[in-house]
Amino acid sequence: MRLFENYAASCRPKSKKDFNVDQLANLLQSLQMDEVATKAYNSLFFSMADMQIEKFMGKWYTVVDSKEVHKEDCSIFYCKFIFILKMRCKFSVDMVLQTPYTATFTSKQYGVINNDVVTNEGYGSMVGPEPGAVLITTGSERDQCPFFPVRIGGLSDEGEYQYMILSTPLKYPTMVLTRDLTLFETKWKREVYDFVEKNGFMSPMAALNTRLHFTDVDVCRKVNKLYENGNV
């Protein structure tokens, strides 16, 4: 319950009615029963281990997204965690504060709408090592509430996560980020597809009969020049 309460407190207030917000409010109300909260928690995080925030270092590409919510194409996330111990990374993030089990960071996302590059700046937090304790806010006006990782996959030789699936208690919207586009296509895409299809992230009730969109990587390489810019 503590994690779900922390999630709800991280949502931005919204003046007009919103179907997803109403659904979220109904869900959170039902979670007042411990048994229901435990079932919901296990449904979201059954495949997650404890988080190691430093392994989010690096550049991330958005390869799967809920396009009814996020109109941007070919989005890229950057982070740059700055730890108290002077460890640095990149992920749409500047680390503001970090202790062994908590962290605060800022986030930045670049995407393309009608051939124009758009930028969203958000923030994130980690309130413990357990699944559900990491919240990432994109800064997009269409994202009232944060995302949390529900699955992380693969480890590089440097010990970095190779892809992660971000979602919400409603399993909508959902995004998948990867570090290596080619490796994702050849090694992780089928695994990700099977996971989101089997576990209700592909087309949940809140998505109103829409499905997750898998990005055409070849098109993105042409329309978003940041894709091949290793110095950004």
UniProtKB/TrEMBL annotation:
- Specify the Lipocalin domain's residue ranges: 43-224
Coiled-coil intervals: none
Its transmembrane ranges are none
Family matches, as Pfam families: Lipocalin_10
Which InterPro entries does the annotation name? Answer: Calycin, Lipocalin_dom_nem
Source domain of life: Eukaryota
This chain's protein is named Lipocln_cytosolic_FA-bd_dom domain-containing protein
Q: Which organism is it from?
A: Caenorhabditis elegans
